[in-house]
Amino acid sequence: MQENYMVCNCKQVSYNDIADALHQHSKFENVLSAFEDVQKVTHCSTGCGGCHQKVLDIISEIMMSK
């Protein structure tokens, strides 16, 4: 498992928060729909938006490991 670290400073969302939110949704259809699901749970990337690409990269990484 990836070391836990803060991804979204605005909403205080960590790597593990994103992974947990992603695993709540069993459908891994595509990164953008997964991002929307994770965003609904964690509210990441709804502040300044600076973490948007980092969140997408993490979701992609987790989906690829499935």
Note the main attributes of this structure.
about 70 residues; mainly alpha; two-stranded antiparallel ribbon
Could you please describe the fold and organization of this structure?
This protein has about 70 residues and is mainly α. The protein has a single domain, classed as Arc Repressor Mutant, subunit A, CATH 1.10.10. Helices cover about 50% and strands about 10% of the residues. The chain contains three helices and two strands; from the N terminus they run ββααα. A two-stranded antiparallel ribbon has the order 1-2. A hairpin with a 4-residue loop joins strand 1 and strand 2. Helix 1 packs across helix 2, helix 1 packs across helix 3 and helix 2 packs across helix 3. The longest helix is centred in the last third of the chain and has 13 residues.
| H/E element sequence | EEHHH
Name the shape in a single word. globular
Whole-number tally of structural domains: 1
Terminal Cα separation, in Å?
Answer: 13 Å
Quick structural summary:
The protein contains three helices and two strands, in the order E-E-H-H-H. By secondary structure, it is mostly helical.
Topology diagram in text:
Blueprint: E1 6-8, E2 13-14, H1 15-23, H2 31-42, H3 52-64
Antiparallel strand pairs: 1-2
